[in-house]
UniProtKB/TrEMBL annotation:
Keywords: Membrane, Transmembrane, Transmembrane helix. Residues 1-11, 23-39, 53-63 have a biased composition (Pro residues). It comes from Streptomyces phaeofaciens. This is Uncharacterized protein. Residues 1-63 are annotated as: Disordered. Residues 40-52 have a biased composition (Low complexity). The chain crosses the membrane at residues 73-96, 102-121, 133-160, 180-197.
Amino acid sequence: MTESAPPPPQPVDGNPYAQPAPDAQPQPPVGAPAAPYPAPAAGGNPFAQQPGAVPPGAVPPPPFPAAPRQGNVVLGILTAVVVALVTAGVYGGIVGATEYEIGYAAVGVGFLVGFAAGKVGGGNPALPIVSAVLALGAVYLGQIIGIGLIMADIAGVSATTVFTEHFGVITEGWSDEADPLTFVFLAVGAFAAFSGAKKASA
């Protein structure tokens, strides 16, 4: 008994010369593990860094420091001069009323002078130095005013008369009464002005 031959493949879409469709590729079984390595990156280098990526272990550069605030230096100095004169008068009034030099008042004079200069003049490096010099003069002038007020009270004359007619006597009185604490107050006022100008311009 002879076996019958399998029927020839049927033409695809009626085309006798068309090739039959290849067998479907076998699919991996369900639950099979994924490929152990990711697909290679573009260009064939799987270890290439992505654009903008930071290499491992690298420290990003620190941000640039902010530029110091700009201002009008001349106006800052003029403002500091006005504040120095006003605070010198206030400090002199305190010394004349209490007959004592008060350290906190000297600190306040210096800080106000420096803060005004830095706030108006900006971050110019010369302003803290100028403020310290002006504060030094303001504290000294305040001490002179205080001594003049004390002398006027003792002599029973007006302060205007003492300052206009006996100013030399006032300066001599300051020299006679000056002690190490007097110069400490001068230095403290100058330092407070320097610090105040730095803080205001930051």
